[in-house]
Amino acid sequence: MAERRVRAAVVGTGAIITVGHLPALAAHSAEAELVAAVDIDPARLTAFREQVAAVEGIGAPTGYTDLAAMLATERPDLVILGTPPALHRAQALAALRAGAWVWSEKPLCLSLAEYDEIAAAEREGGPYIAVVAQHRYGSGTVHARGLLASGDLGAPRVAHCQTTWHRDRAYYAVPWRGRWATEGGGPTMGHGIHQNDLLLHLLGDWTEIRAMAARLVHGIESEDVSTALVRFANGAVATVVNSVLSPDEVSRIRIDCADATVELTHLYGHRNEDWTYTPRPGLADEARVARWRTPAADRPSSHAAQLEGVLAAMRTGTRPPGGGADARRTLEFNAALYKAAFTGRPVRAGEIAEGDPFYSAMHGNHPDWAPKEAQ
Questions:
Q1: DSSP letter string over 192-214?
Q2: Are 120 and 225 contained in the same domain?
Q3: Residue 115 is part of which domain span?
């Protein structure tokens, strides 16, 4: 791969591929080309290929309705998964076993057990799997994480993580949404996972979680709102809210440190201007405050920003950003949130292991939440 473009294939040709991944591939067309596209709907596949043809330099993908046939014929270097969550496990395993690296939309899979099965199919030096976590890669996030890690803002003390969005009944009319077996959960897994991941990216390891969940409006299997209290290894405590019931939609992270509050307010993506830094009262170090507020560049959070790191990892045979134990930590956080909410007791990091019902399913076979066929 060091002397040629990476040969990429997409699986699924829906909105997340066209809106997120096509621009990313176009931005890196000097390093990667799209050689194949897979979709079970021939008409949708044809429309997608026509759309790609209008993007200069991205490639001319061959269309397939079968993943196995595509892998055997094209032997791609990178497979990008944009299919519904329940399909990710089998598709990721097939791609890895065919020798392709995988970049998958969140959630990568529906349980910690599935994650560990996928991770076991990775090989030293690649192929590896990475999970889309585009909010980590905007310049504002890079700047904030550096300040937090260096201690320049003072010790983190209190944090808030908010994903309060709105989804109507038509949204849940899509058969795979709101069901444990196909989506893996409600807004905790399908929506708030992005902000939850970013919170962990900024604050590091969590140690304990207490939570509540409810099904207040939608007639679905999973929750439509969840809340949590979280303790981090660095001593900080945080509140987390995930909702699809909120008319005023916002995504927000706020971290109160000893010397400043850093806050990100956006919806589906952010730029430097979406980050604010508020010094503590009485702090008079103007040069220090200016350093907080002036990142060197303004790069929006995007799939393109993360793809740069994935391609670099492929060329060096190293684990890509958004993979490995780091990605597992986010999935474990969600499993622990569900376990804490459904059992009514605190859950500690590391306690959900093989044999725990929440290791194999996010609903943990809880009688009030699991579908009848799973109990």
A1: THHHHHHHHHHH--EEEEEEEEE
A2: no
A3: 6-134+304-320
Domains: count for the chain: 2
Mean pLDDT of the chain, nearest integer: 96
Classify 184 in phi/psi space as left (phi over 0), alpha (psi -120 to 50) or beta: left
Question: Could you give phi then psi for residue 333, rounded to 5 degrees?
Answer: -60, -45
CA distance 162 to 241: 5
DSSP string, 44-73: HHHHHHHHHHTSTTS--PEEES-HHHHHHH
In a domain, 202, yes or no: yes
pTM: 0.96
pLDDT digits (tens, 9 = 90+) for 96-152: 999 999 999 999 999 999 999 999 999 999 999 999 999 999 999 999 999 999 999
- Whole-number Å distance between alpha carbons of 251 and 83: 24
Torsion of CA 213, 217, 221, 223, to 10 degrees: -20
Domain assignment present for residue 150? The answer is: yes
